[in-house]
Design a protein that fits this description.
198 residues, alpha+beta, Aminopeptidase, 8-stranded mixed sheet, 6 helices, 8 strands, 33% helix, globular
Length: 198
């Protein structure tokens, strides 16, 4: 696909990227994404996912959302300029409280530091509040993940809580290293922000 082609099944378009449905054809790109220890640092302690895991666990999990929801799930992030697969974003009912909508993303290291995580997340938040009936958007990450925490702050979310990692710490990590944080943005606060408080 050239940078001028629009992907099929586009869910969201921003200035520099498209979000579209994932397909089975994305398996190699997902494996490449999860094979980078830097990408996986705050998800598995830096342990890459195997191709078998991608094919048998991760990809079926991602695709399963399209059967259960019309407008929630995992979405491939495609760079407009090149047509390249950059990673994915998710926007889905939060497992701990389905009344909240959870935002998340995973991007290849080549796309870090360019504001793309913020751009895609901002687009999803706007779509969620304007079109999908979301009332509260939440995001979680490890407390040590300064990059993702900065993204959350740029999006206008506020720190709601800090809590223990649900499970054993990563090998070589302490329980304190694996603390997690939850950020929250309510619809009324978002509306006040985008309208300048009017």
């Amino acid at each position: 696909m050239s940078g001028r082609d629009v992907p099929r099944d586009v869910f969201l378009e921003t200035e520099r990227l498209y979000l579209r449905r994932l397909t089975a054809a994305d398996a190699d790109a997902l494996y490449e994404l999860d094979a980078d220890p830097a990408v996986m640092l705050y998800l598995t302690g830096g342990v890459p996912h195997s191709r078998t895991f991608i094919l048998e666990k991760a990809l079926p999990h991602y695709l399963g959302y399209y059967e259960r929801y019309e407008s929630f799930g995992f979405w491939a992030a495609v760079e407009k300029a090149s047509g390249a697969f950059m990673g994915w974003f998710h926007f889905r009912p939060f497992r701990a409280n389905p009344e909240e909508t959870e935002l998340g993303y995973r991007l290849k290291r080549a796309y870090w530091g360019r504001g793309l995580a913020t751009e895609g997340s901002r687009g999803l938040i706007e779509k969620g509040f304007r079109e999908l009936g979301a009332r509260t958007v939440v995001a979680t990450t490890m407390a040590l993940n300064v990059r993702s925490r900065r993204v959350m702050e740029k999006l206008g979310t506020t720190l709601e809580s800090e809590f223990d990692f649900p499970g054993d710490p990563f090998p070589g990590w302490s329980k304190a290293d694996c603390r997690e944080v939850k950020y929250t943005l309510a619809r009324d606060r978002w509306e006040a922000h985008v309208t300048g408080g009017r």
